[in-house]
Design brief:
The complex is a heterodimer. By secondary structure, chain A is α+β, with helices and mostly antiparallel strands. Chain A contains three helices and five strands; from the N terminus they run H-E-H-H-E-E-E-E. A five-stranded antiparallel sheet of chain A has the order 1-3-4-5-2. The longest helix of chain A is centred in the middle third of the chain and has 16 residues. The two termini of chain A are about 25 Å apart. By secondary structure, chain B is an alpha+beta fold. A five-stranded antiparallel sheet of chain B has the order 1-3-4-5-2, covered by helices on one side. In chain B, a hairpin with a 4-residue loop joins strand 3 and strand 4. The chains are: A alpha+beta, B alpha+beta.
Chain lengths: ~140, ~140
């Protein structure tokens, strides 16, 4: 369930875990994901594409940001990959708020996301920068 | 076409571009598989209130195109280790996007390459820019 929150509440999360969720890399789910991107490579039949890890790094964040009165734009993203993710793996996504900085026209939210598998192996580390702008 | 291995890789090499014509239907499908339901991606009025000229394509879909371009290139011979991009401009449904990459450094001792990667729209504007690292097995 999406909790109503504000930028002030988000600031209070700085340095702390904000969101966590487990995702199962089900075969059909990954197949559908690859189809939507338009992939035709056999690489992603038994293994999960890195772009899926980027997508799940942001899903919970998108749900939460929808409750804000500001518009959320994507500023940048980065991912470091440490181990392959196999179809069937369970990926735990942990989102931490690194910083929330207000500027004249916008607020910049920097998130650090870690992803582990069901054995506790670190799979990936992501950084996402979200820009919040006032709506007219 | 994929490289066969580390021996095929050199600094200055352009990797085969990937051209994508992004449709509104693809944007809607991306919403479904990514869970990103931000209205700037489907509601024109909402996008206008945010100061945008129209609904915009998800940045992460464009990044997925770049990942696809890289995986076509490295195939089973390499593995993506790092990728970072900044979204410099907006992309819109109907755009024709060209994903590009150039090998900037080939680190012989580590069998690893650093690439510049970017996306150009049909006007030749770079809307997404970044870098990536791909690890190869030593030859």
């Amino acid at each position: 369930m999406v909790q109503c929150f504000t930028i002030e509440k988000l600031k209070q999360k700085t340095g702390h875990v904000w969101l966590t969720r487990d995702y199962t890399a089900e075969r059909e789910r990954i197949k559908r994901f690859v189809e939507v991107v338009g992939g035709d490579t056999p690489l992603w039949q038994e293994e999960v594409p890195p772009s899926w890890l980027l997508a799940i790094s942001l899903e919970q964040v998108c749900e939460q940001l929808a409750a804000l009165p500001q518009a959320a734009l994507h500023g940048s993203c980065a991912i470091e990959l440490f181990a392959p993710v196999k179809v069937g793996d369970i990926v735990t996504v942990v989102v931490k708020v690194s910083s929330v900085r207000e500027r004249q026209q916008a607020t910049f939210v920097i998130l650090e996301i870690e992803q582990h598998n069901q054995s506790g192996v670190m799979l990936a580390r992501c950084k996402q920068v979200i820009v919040l702008r006032s709506k007219t | 076409m994929s490289v066969q291995g580390w021996a095929d890789v050199r600094a200055g090499q352009e990797i085969p571009p990937l051209v994508k014509h992004v449709t509104m239907q693809q944007v809607e499908k991306w919403r479904e598989v990514s869970g990103d339901n931000n209205p700037i991606h489907y509601d024109g009025d909402f996008a206008a209130r945010c100061g945008l000229p129209g609904v915009v394509v998800h940045g992460q879909l464009i990044t997925a195109f770049l990942c696809q371009m890289l995986s076509h290139w490295h195939g089973t011979a390499g593995r993506l280790r790092r990728l970072e991009v900044a979204y410099k401009g907006f992309n819109f449904p109907g755009d024709t996007l060209t994903c590009c990459g150039l090998v900037k450094e080939a680190l012989l001792s580590e069998s690893r390459v650093v690439l510049a990667i970017w996306v150009e729209n049909q006007q030749g504007e770079k809307t997404v820019c970044g870098s990536a690292e791909v690890q190869f097995a030593p030859s």
